[in-house]
Specification:
Blueprint (H helix, E strand, L loop, with lengths): L1 H43 L5 E6 L6 H16 L2 E6 L9 H10 L4 E4 L7 H10 L4 E3 L11 E4 L2 H15 L6 E6 L9 H14 L7 E6 L5 H13 L7 E3 L3 H13 L7 E5 L3 H8 L5 E5 L1 H18 L5 E3 L2 E4 L1 H15 L1
Parallel strand pairs: 1-2, 1-3, 3-4, 4-5, 5-11, 6-7, 6-8, 8-9, 9-10
Antiparallel strand pairs: 10-12
Helix pairs in contact: 2-10, 3-4, 5-6, 7-8, 9-11
Length: 343
């Protein structure tokens, strides 16, 4: 009995030591990151005008990569350091933790892809208390303490989607579905949905009654999103005539599902932004159109907003960027341009 108790104690001791070592490694890595950011700024303090950090939820997104490249170019023109705060291949930090690192490093400004992650609102307030301005580039967080929002209003986006839906509508169409990434805290698509609903309602008649539905996806994980979207195409009796996607991942998943279930021509996809896969779908005529936010403007305006605030403590609360549509013809031109650049 005593021998068994000794073994149990030994096992618990090993687990405890392992847990302590893990926490030590995480803490050490965290403060090494803070120190590294501080050293970068200290080494160039006399040479550069300011040091900004861009914090993105999905650093591998083509959309946000384009935004970062635009912001980086604008920062270089203004003699400003722009650092992309990203995770390493071994340890992943949440946006909240990367905000904490940036605040501890005493950066001059933060460009944040804002979502409703727990504790993030508090970090924006802490940045404000430390006189570090925060600009958001995904959702508006002015009530939480950010100085400006760069993007498009949900009203604008909903109107643009509504216009494209009306262009695609045919007399026999009955059902439109929106893939909804609205969060549990309500940050998201309610205004977009209402605007589309109002526009569709105006063209709906007694003879041709059109219903608008939402497919809720609360998970941001790629596999969960793919599974949810593919389920739409499994029940052919419940298929929508038009499927509206509000981000590039969902657009790709819908396009792939359309092909795999041999439903090309039965569902029209209105996409969001573009990737190589989405461009292929546009060129092939499988995806009629996709919405494009001007990523160059987002990056430029984010740097300009921070710099304007630091220079005179005045800034516009909202910077509206252009919305464009990419159809088959535009996609072909973009692909030709890409191929010419390679040559």
């Amino acid at each position: 009995m005593k021998q068994n108790n000794a073994k149990i104690k030994c096992i618990f001791l090993v687990i405890a030591i392992g847990f302590i070592l893990f926490l030590t490694m995480i803490t050490s890595h965290f403060y090494q990151q803070v120190l590294k950011e501080s050293e970068i700024w200290s080494a160039t303090k006399g040479e550069k005008k300011a040091h900004y950090v861009m914090i993105l939820d999905d650093e591998n997104s083509i959309f946000w990569d384009s935004v970062y490249e635009s912001a980086k170019k604008e920062a270089e023109n203004e003699n400003i350091i722009l650092e992309l705060s990203k995770n390493s291949s071994t340890i992943s930090f949440a946006i909240k933790e990367r905000m904490q690192m940036s605040i501890a490093a005493k950066v001059d400004g933060i460009i944040l892809e804002y979502n409703d992650q727990e504790g993030l609102d508090e970090e924006i307030q802490i940045a404000k208390q430390n006189q570090i301005p925060v600009v958001t580039i995904s959702n508006d967080a002015s009530r939480q303490g950010s100085i400006s929002f760069i993007g498009v209003s949900d009203y604008q986006l909903g109107k643009k989607y509504g216009e494209q839906i009306i262009k695609l509508l045919k007399p026999d169409m009955k059902k439109i579905m929106i893939i909804d990434r609205e969060s549990e805290k309500g940050v998201g698509t309610e205004t977009i949905y209402n605007q589309i609903n109002n526009m569709v309602h105006k063209v709906s008649t007694t003879e041709n009654s059109i219903t608008l539905e939402r497919k809720h996806i609360l998970s941001n994980k790629e596999f969960d999103a793919e599974e949810a979207i593919w389920s739409i195409f499994q029940n052919k009796e419940e298929l929508p005539d038009i499927l509206v996607c509000l981000n590039e991942m969902d657009t790709e998943c819908a396009y792939q599902a359309l092909i795999n279930y041999n439903l090309v021509g039965q569902v029209s996809i209105i996409g969001y932004y573009y990737t190589d896969i989405v461009l292929n779908g546009l060129i092939e005529g499988i995806i009629p159109v996709t919405v494009e936010l001007d990523t160059e403007q987002i990056g430029q305006y984010a740097i300009q907003a921070l710099t304007k605030y630091l220079d005179n403590h005045h800034v516009d609360c909202f910077y509206s960027v252009d919305l464009n549509m990419i159809d088959q013809k535009k996609a072909e031109e973009m692909r030709e341009y890409e191929e010419e650049k390679v040559l």
